[in-house]
Each structure stands twice: as C-alpha cells, then as structure tokens.
Design a protein that fits this description.
Keywords: Membrane, Transmembrane, Transmembrane helix. Helices cover 30% and strands 35% of the residues. It is an alpha+beta fold. The chain folds into two domains: 53 residues; 152 residues, Sandwich (Jelly Rolls). The strands form two sheets. A six-stranded antiparallel beta sheet has the order 1-12-3-8-9-10. Helix 1 runs antiparallel to helix 2. 24% of the residues are buried.
Length: 220
C-alpha cells in the first residue's frame, strides 16, 4: 500500500511539474491582469497618442504591446514610444541602422540602453511586447521571431509623459503606421502579492489532491 501511494505521489508530482512548466506564463499574465491598476487600448491611429494615468505609481510595472510598421526614413532618432521626457523614462527609438530600448535614471542624469538590431524591418508589419519593472529589468519580445531581450538590473524610471508615436519633441516623431496598442500598468508590489497568493493556492490544491488520491489507493 505504501509503495502504491508513493507511486501515486511520483506520478502526480510529475504531472504537476509538467503542467506548471506549461502554465507558469499564463499564471503570471493572469496575476498581472488582476493587479493592473489601469489599462489602455488604441487601434489604427496616425497622430501622436498621449496616455494619461489617473495616479502616480510609486513602484511601477508596465506592459506594452504594440503592432506597427516602420516606413523608410533617413537620419535622426524616431521614437515609437516613451514613458517620460528626455532621459527619465523608458523609450524605443529607431535609427536607420538599428533600434534600441533606452532606459534611464529617474533624475535624468544619465541613460542606459540595449540595442535590438532586427526590429528595423522597413515596410513590414510587426509587433513586440515590452515589460519593465522599476529598478529591476526591462524585457522585450519580438512577436514575429519569438526572440526576446532582457536587461537587468536597470535604474529607476518615471511614468509621467507617456507618448505613443513620438519622443519628447516633434523631431522624434515615428515614421510609419501604428495598428494597435495595449498599455497596462500596476504597482509591482501588488502584482507580486497576487502572484504569491496564486502560487500558495496552487500548492494547497496540489496537497489536497495528493492526499485524496493517496487515501483512495491506500484503502485499496
């Protein structure tokens, strides 16, 4: 009976591990949706779009999905989005040879960046997802290729002038089309607490299921 219960435990544990590896991303996304303070969605716009938050986020965690197409251009910097002016926020800027997520300190005293070369595909519709946690990391995924880029740790940034389709002045306007934008933001501590609760719930559920199955097989 004990051996049978051990076998049940082993099989059930293996199933949980396999299931967790498949659904951990879904759990993280679900936790983010539960914790999200504000959500914004836009589609097919040609002018610069400003996102105005209803409050100041002290420990921001934001997620941006953007579906876009880069038109041919020459010279200068052309920003797809920014979260704050000059060097105090996170932004995506294009040049004629490369592209980069640039993030900087909240006081604007200096900037840091990570180059992403393959996001400059002219006259080609593409999309990407950007996640950034204040003071922790910025994560970028190319939806078409599945390639992703992570920079960690990063300094603090601000969310006080969020623009889609332009940087901090008109000389940094984006050349191309923007088909769809989804922007969500929450307090990171709220997201973390929700995620911890969800994992605790899964652990309790796993324990109850194991003891229920084990008791059935032990009785046999």
């Amino acid at each position: 009976m004990i051996r049978r219960a051990s076998l049940v435990f082993l099989i059930f544990t293996l199933a949980v591990v396999v299931g967790a590896s498949c659904y951990i991303g879904l759990l993280n996304n679900f936790a983010f949706r539960l914790a999200s303070g504000e959500n914004f969605s836009y589609a097919n716009f040609s002018n610069v779009k400003e996102i105005k938050l209803s409050k100041n986020y002290l420990d921001p965690y934001f997620k941006l999905y953007i579906d876009y197409e880069v038109a041919p251009f020459s010279g200068g910097y052309h920003d797809l989005f920014q979260t704050s002016d000059v060097n105090s926020g996170v932004r995506m800027e294009f040049t004629d040879r490369t592209s980069a997520i640039v993030y900087a300190t909240a006081d604007g005293s200096g900037g840091f960046g990570v180059q992403i070369h393959n996001l400059v595909r002219l006259n080609h519709r593409q999309s990407m997802t950007v996640r950034a946690i204040d003071g922790k990391y910025v994560w970028v995924e190319d939806s078409e290729t599945g390639d992703h880029y992570v920079a960690s740790p990063i300094p603090h940034f601000t969310l006080n002038h969020i623009l889609i389709g332009q940087g901090f002045d008109s000389s940094r306007a984006f050349f191309g089309k923007i088909y769809k934008v989804n922007f969500s933001v929450c307090e990171y501590k709220v997201y973390r607490n929700v995620l911890i609760f969800m994992y605790f719930f899964v652990l309790v559920f796993y324990s109850i299921c194991f003891y229920a199955l084990a008791s059935i097989f032990v009785k046999k």
